[in-house]
Amino acid sequence: MLLALFQPDIPQNLGAALRLGACMGVSVHVIEPCGFPLSDKAIRRAAMDYGEPADVTRHPGWAEFHASRQGRIVLFSTKGATPLHDFSFRSDDILLFGRESVGVPDEVHEASDARVFIPLTAGRRSLNVTVSAAIGLSEALRQTGQFPKAAA
């Protein structure tokens, strides 16, 4: 299982996603270009003290990411087709999250194997991308029995 971020706009959200990945033992893939300068130094700075243990892979664009993928692409979207808790995750799924400002383009929607959404109360539009990633990853890890074991 891995998290993939499509062209993130906000470096702090990338940092939070890297921390999430490090704490949950999940790789994070960043599909560029980003809305901010991205370098290895910037990744370390954004992740603070979690930058080193995080497993990060950078892709120069969607085509390169899509060509290298292994497993289903499960897109989290406000335009998703299946509620999160009605979806059956697999251990090799790629959990894909779009840009904070505009989500993902139609070609990414069409290339995804599944589209899910996190149900919200009436009148609410969306959650922060990293909050969504934490909710989605938690459910996927729970379903597949891949949650990290508690430290003794």
Describe the SSE topology.
Layout: E1 2-6, H1 11-24, E2 27-31, H2 40-47, E3 56-59, H3 62-68, E4 73-76, E5 82-83, E6 94-97, H4 106-111, E7 114-117, H5 129-144
Parallel strand pairs: 1-2, 1-6, 2-3, 4-6, 4-7, 5-7
Helix pairs in contact: 1-2, 1-5
Please list the strands of the largest sheet in the order they lie side by side.
3-2-1-6-4-7-5
Main beta-sheet annotation:
7 strands, parallel
The portion of residues forming beta strands comes to 15-25%
Report how far the terminal alpha carbons are from each other: 24 Å
* SSE arrangement, N to C: EHEHEHEEEHEH
Task: Give the mean pLDDT.
Answer: 90
Radius of gyration: 15 Å
Kindly name the structural category: alpha/beta
Number of strands: 7
**From the coordinates shown, what is the CATH architecture?**
3-Layer(aba) Sandwich
> By CATH's scheme, which homologous superfamily applies?
SPOUT methyltransferase, trefoil knot domain
Helix content: 25-40%
Q: Total helix count?
A: 5
Kindly provide the name of the CATH class.
Alpha Beta
Unreliable stretches, pLDDT < 50, 5 or more residues? none
* CATH level 3 topology: Alpha/beta knot
Domain unit count = 1
List keywords for this structure.
152 residues, seven-stranded parallel sheet, alpha/beta, globular, 5 helices, Alpha/beta knot
Written account of the structure:
With 152 residues, the protein is α/β, with parallel strands linked by helices. The protein has a single domain (2-144), classed as Alpha/beta knot (3-Layer(aba) Sandwich), CATH 3.40.1280. It has five helices and seven strands. A seven-stranded parallel beta sheet has the order 3-2-1-6-4-7-5. Helix 1 crosses helix 2 (40-47). The longest helix is centred in the C-terminal third of the chain and has 16 residues, at 129-144. The chain starts with a strand and ends in an 8-residue tail after the last helix. The model has no long low-confidence stretch (mean pLDDT 90).
